[in-house]
Amino acid sequence: MKIRQIYLLLALIGVACSSKGNTTPEWPWETPDKPAEEKPAEPNPGIVKAGWTNVSASYSTLPEGIQIYKSPATLEGVKAIAYIAVADVEKITWDVWSIDDPETQGTTQSLKTPAQVYSDTKAPVVVNGGYFFSEGGKQYNASVAVSGGKVYGVNLNYASEDWVTYYYPTRGVFYEKNGTLAAGWTYYTTAHQHYLYGSPAQNAWDKSPLQAPDANFPEKASNFEVSTAIGAGPVLVHGGKVVNSWKAEMFYGNGSDDKMPEARHPRTAIGSTGSCLVLFVCEGRGMTEGVAGLTTGEVASVMKSLGCTEALNLDGGGSSCLLVNGKSTIQESDGHQRAVGSAIILRKK
């Protein structure tokens, strides 16, 4: 009887182990099927919906909070090759490298290519910054550059076609103050006062020069005291509206045959959606057949379409270059990277 009871008990155990509700494999070397891993959600679905392709995986591992996108084949009805770096401001911070020329007196410091800036910083994203020039063996900043609250450059505060009649334009800047990203216009006075305005002085080449900006003109100013900033111009988007203020900022003379803002060239821009910082670069000048580049007006429209409520045009042409983990996105129009006076970097907070 005991033997029959043991057999009966074993049989009952076998039935229990083979029941339909059991998930234990019949043999120890078998494993249950694992559910398929879900792809991470696209962090910027609106950008993808607008036709941009997330190509972040093409540039090795990036910090959480940075995504890289390639443009559709056309932008604003024009054949285009463009890239954007989109950074979540809760996870990613931005900074500026610049030559040290806070009074536009010139420095013997060397200009750097974006690749050299990357080599020095190992920042996952590097893009060219503001305007600059070289003369008499010195390098000069022609645009605002601020890092860690220290001023390394200011916007040029005059313009002239004949060096007889002078204008005093306010020019564009993109800055961070108390955690807020915005675009605006600055003026640096001969008395070393640095002012920030919410709208530009409405100068024009075909009109008499307006007075030099001050604490109350073209509007009540605030002192330009910010943590991080890059200048250039024109301002493209401000307060959610396209402004493209190149005429008021007086970048090119009234008699110029090639008004650069209205011609198509490689371009670089920086903007903010509020929650994200956006860096834009586009190829041009026929480096890829049929790709001429974009006008500043077209870049302004693109930045607004990406959700930017604030945006600034940066130095373009042969300076335009965006590196991701040290790798170029576009073909630079000089055929190589140009050494520049300032650059913007993104990195993890």
- Give the termini distance in whole angstroms: 76 Å
Approximate shape = globular
Strand residue content? 25-35%
Order of strands side by side in the largest beta sheet? 1-2-5-20-19-21-17-18
Helix vs. strand class: alpha+beta
The average pLDDT value, as a whole number, equals: 90
- Oligomeric assembly: single chain
| Helix-strand string | HHEEEEEEHEEEEEEEEEEEEHEEHEEEE
Q: How many DSSP helices?
A: 5
The parts where pLDDT drops under 50 for at least 5 residues are: 1-25
Please count the beta strands (DSSP E, at least 2 residues each). 24
| Helical amount | 10-25%
Rg from C-alpha positions?
A: 28 Å
Sheet of most strands: 8 strands, antiparallel
Count of distinct structural domains: 1
